[in-house]
Amino acid sequence: MSAERDDEAVRRYAEQFGNLLADTGWPRMAGRVFSAILTSEAGRLTAAELSDQLQASPAAVSGAVNYLLQLRLASREREPGSRRDVYVVQDDSWYQSMMSENQALIQWANSLRQVLDAAGDGTPAQERVRITLGFFEFLTDEVKGLADRWMIRRAELDAEIAAEKEAGPGA
User: What is the pLDDT of residue 170?
Assistant: First the structure.
């Protein structure tokens, strides 16, 4: 692992990652903004910094940030002693987003249970709803297991990172 940060390479690879997110369904600017914040040294950037770095309009950055806030992949904080907002990507942003999505799955399943009861026994609609409900329940259970396994893996990663910091650069 390189000990020195290459800002130009980080920006180039971050842009590639942002474009990859867009290629897989994200709004392009949201992918670029997420990647820029994630790879920034401090893990936090203001809207003005994002606009400048990405050569994007404030409106485009605002829309992208709102998308990330909605997914819980970024958070908004105040810069100390300032009225400016700063946008932050936390280390566990993906985990938090997935847990939020799991809560949505639980709500969807609860709603579909009501539809299932009303759809009538043996009807094609009931069968479709039953399969969809089964899938949501399956995903909910799987996400719980994944979350438990992630907590173990996260502790391992935290220990690895702490050991690397303790050993110092180039060790």
Answer: 64
